[in-house]
């Protein structure tokens, strides 16, 4: 690029018009600039400092313009259009049916008010003929004016009345003649005209405050949220930056209706963040003069931290009528698809994906934790292929109605329930190895059946593979984590299951009313995918359930009040945590769902374990192998598998040598070449195990 020096810019911090085109140029002060071959300004270093010719102005290129949609959002999807059409048709149908039913009543009312209407018509006609309004005005003009004007005005008035009387007489004559002729020639038209006249007179006669037709729909009207109200609310927060001179509150988008409420987007004054407002939600509600349960300030996380979204509901969220759980009366679940869990403030359903995830539910007592976790169990129960392992360590039997579909079940605050929980966890931990081995084998043999090295719906439903989806739920999980005897082992088992279980089809759901470091190990809380936090007391509990720094980011379950039962933050489902209320399914309703779920399982042949009265089998592979060894010091793997299948066919049928090796790995037992003899008495060296190693492992 050829450079043509023009001048040296000396002025610090100012934009100078170097090329004399009337526009200040962009440059770095104190540096030499030159004109490039295209006429643009460049530094001597060859680095361009001005925009090249032929490009859009820099202001346009750097400004981020958000284009608002051309058509409303609902018109862009078939589902949205369908919803609007269905609503409009339903509304119209209702209005028509409502009035049709009342037609006889309307007829009676019309007849009753018809004479009044006729009297009003005659009175109005007489006023027009006599020019009642003009008469007063003429009297005013004539008063005090000279006799000539007086006489002229009176004469004009009389002439007008005469003209109008003639016109009225002609009109009445025409109507009467037309009526008689129509009556003689086309009676139907005459009847219709008479009926129309009666209806018109009836409508005209009815009092304004008691119209003939009743209202078919009552439209509830709520206070409109205006920018002045939002501004007043924000300025009343007691924040200096909000009230400082020149502090500007801006609205990047119009305040809009959003579900059953109003949504305002606000750019806060410089130096303020959305969290400054969120932590003062109560003051904002006071400033807006709305109940606390109506006011929901949220950060707009895909924008800058100073952008706030305030959603103001028409009625407090805890008083809004919640829809019924969609699966309450009918339907079954495919656990590989999202299950309905809650509704957000805008009354939109929010579902959760359970497969490939774990879940943590935390709350203060009596805020709706049991309701929330029961929903998860009920949803999973409606997929007959999901094995349920339910442990409720408080002993109140909150999950008792789910016993008829549970493979493992224990309820209690004592050692028995904890031991049953630990045994089930140990079994699942062991299954991590066998499942991983099975998945690896399938992925190798038939990559198409297992494309992502994860359980698929088909694999999970093949009973021979042992890859069925298991949902294990521990309510009041702090009981095992705070028990000296179990703490360490429980931490190791649950951490392993949480990290490796999802891909292998094992879902762990933990619930606690004491979410602190002692009752919920960080290795567990940090690795959970889906988090639901109902009301909690402080920042620590909030971050324990919702994830580190959530409180700082304005995601605060501490702002819920005592009456916000069932209302919580759900994180990990969509990009940003959402506030919602779980569907309220109480105990008796849950029992009915469980009955349906049991029927589904009976039909699918998947009722097992506790549900059919079997005691929880606690499988310890190392002990089982020791049991089948007998007195022989060494055994081939194939012989062990044969004996295991005979020993516990319900567990070991179909096991492969790899599965056995994987199951024994956690005990530190490995296979090697061992000497043995075939049934024909021939000696050979084959893969197998040594009894000594096994007894050592089972004793430790
Ligand atoms: N989604 C909901 N909709 C309406 N009410 C709810 C909802 N969830 C919970 N509640 C109400 O809150 C009460 C307490 O709920 P729940 O029993 O689930 O609390 P909890 O936290 O499990 O209590 P605890 O700590 O005693 O086990 C329920 O009796 C119910 O009335």
Automatic annotation (TrEMBL):
Highest taxon, organism lineage: Bacteria
Record SUPFAM superfamilies: P-loop containing nucleoside triphosphate hydrolases
Alphabetical keyword list: ATP-binding, Cell cycle, Cell division, Membrane, Nucleotide-binding, Transmembrane, Transmembrane helix
FtsK domain residues: 347-543
GO biological process, one term: cell division
UniProt: ATP binding residues: 363-370
PROSITE patterns recorded: FTSK (PS50901)
InterPro entries: FtsK_dom (IPR002543), P-loop_NTPase (IPR027417)
Record-annotated membrane-spanning stretches: 165-182
Protein name per the record: Cell division protein FtsK
UniProt source species: Amycolatopsis cynarae
């Amino acid at each position: 690029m050829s450079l043509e020096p023009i001048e040296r810019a000396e002025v610090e911090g100012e934009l100078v018009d170097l090329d004399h085109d009337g526009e200040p140029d962009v440059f770095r002060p104190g540096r030499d600039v030159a004109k490039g071959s295209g006429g643009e300004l460049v530094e001597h270093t060859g680095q361009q400092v001005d925009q090249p010719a032929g490009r859009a102005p820099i202001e346009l290129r750097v400004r981020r313009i958000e284009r608002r949609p051309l058509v409303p959002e609902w018109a862009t999807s078939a589902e949205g259009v369908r919803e609007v059409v269905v609503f409009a048709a339903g509304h119209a149908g209702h209005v028509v049916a409502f009035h049709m039913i009342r037609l006889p009543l309307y007829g009676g009312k019309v007849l009753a008010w018809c004479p009044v209407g006729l009297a009003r018509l005659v009175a109005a006609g007489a006023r027009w003929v006599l020019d009642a309004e003009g008469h007063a005005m003429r009297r005013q003009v004539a008063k005090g004016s000279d006799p000539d004007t007086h006489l002229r005005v009176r004469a004009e008035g009389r002439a007008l009345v005469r003209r109008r009387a003639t016109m009225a007489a002609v009109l009445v004559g025409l109507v009467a003649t037309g009526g008689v002729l129509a009556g003689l020639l086309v009676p139907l038209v005459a009847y219709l005209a008479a009926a129309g006249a009666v209806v018109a007179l009836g409508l005209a006669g009815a009092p304004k405050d008691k119209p003939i037709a009743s209202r078919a729909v009552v439209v509830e009207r709520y206070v409109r949220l205006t920018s002045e109200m939002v501004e007043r609310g924000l300025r009343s927060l007691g924040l200096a930056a909000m009230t400082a001179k020149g502090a500007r509150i801006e609205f990047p988008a119009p305040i809009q209706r959003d579900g059953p409420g109003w949504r305002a987007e606000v750019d806060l004054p410089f130096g303020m963040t959305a969290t400054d407002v969120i932590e003062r939600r109560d003051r904002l509600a006071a400033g807006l003069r709305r109940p606390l349960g109506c006011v929901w300030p949220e950060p707009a996380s895909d924008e800058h931290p100073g952008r706030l979204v305030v959603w103001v509901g028409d009625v407090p969220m805890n008083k809004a009528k919640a829809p019924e759980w969609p699966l309450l009366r009918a339907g079954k679940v495919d656990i590989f698809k999202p299950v309905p869990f809650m509704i957000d403030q805008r009354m939109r359903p929010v579902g959760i994906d359970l497969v490939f995830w774990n879940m943590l539910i935390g709350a203060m007592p009596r805020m709706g934790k049991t309701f929330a976790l029961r929903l998860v169990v009920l949803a999973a129960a409606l997929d007959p292929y999901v094995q349920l392992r339910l442990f409720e360590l408080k002993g109140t039997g909150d999950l008792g109605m789910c016993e008829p579909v549970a493979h493992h079940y224990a309820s209690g605050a004592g050692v028995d329930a904890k031991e049953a929980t630990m045994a089930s966890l140990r079994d699942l931990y062991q299954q991590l190895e066998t499942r991983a081995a099975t998945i690896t084998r399938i992925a190798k043999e038939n990559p198409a059946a297992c494309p992502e090295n994860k359980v698929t719906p088909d694999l999970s439903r093949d009973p021979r593979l042992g890859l069925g989806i298991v949902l294990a739920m521990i309510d009041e999980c702090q009981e095992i984590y705070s028990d000296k005897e179990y703490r360490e082992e429980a931490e190791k088992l649950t951490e392993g299951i949480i990290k490796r279980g999802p891909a292998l089809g094992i879902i762990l759901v933990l619930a606690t009313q004491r979410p602190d470091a002692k009752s919920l190990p960080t290795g567990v809380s940090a690795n959970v995918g889906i988090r639901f936090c109902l009301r909690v007391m402080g920042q620590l509990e909030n971050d324990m359930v919702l994830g580190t720094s959530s409180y700082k980011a304005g995601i605060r379950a501490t702002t819920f009040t005592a009456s916000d039962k069932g209302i919580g933050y759900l994180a990990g489902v969509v990009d940003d945590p959402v506030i919602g209320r779980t569907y309220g399914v109480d105990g008796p309703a849950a029992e009915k769902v469980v009955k349906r779920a049991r029927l589904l399982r009976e039909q699918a042949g998947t009722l097992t374990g506790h549900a059919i009265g079997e005691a929880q089998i606690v499988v310890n592979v190392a002990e089982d192998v020791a049991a089948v060894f007998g007195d022989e010091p060494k055994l081939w793997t194939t012989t062990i598998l044969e004996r295991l299948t005979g020993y516990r066919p319900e567990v070991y049928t179909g096991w492969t040598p790899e599965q056995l090796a994987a199951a024994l790995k956690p005990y530190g037992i490995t296979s090697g070449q061992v000497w043995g003899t075939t049934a024909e008495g021939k000696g050979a060296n084959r893969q197998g195990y040594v009894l000594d190693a096994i007894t050592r492992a089972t004793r430790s």
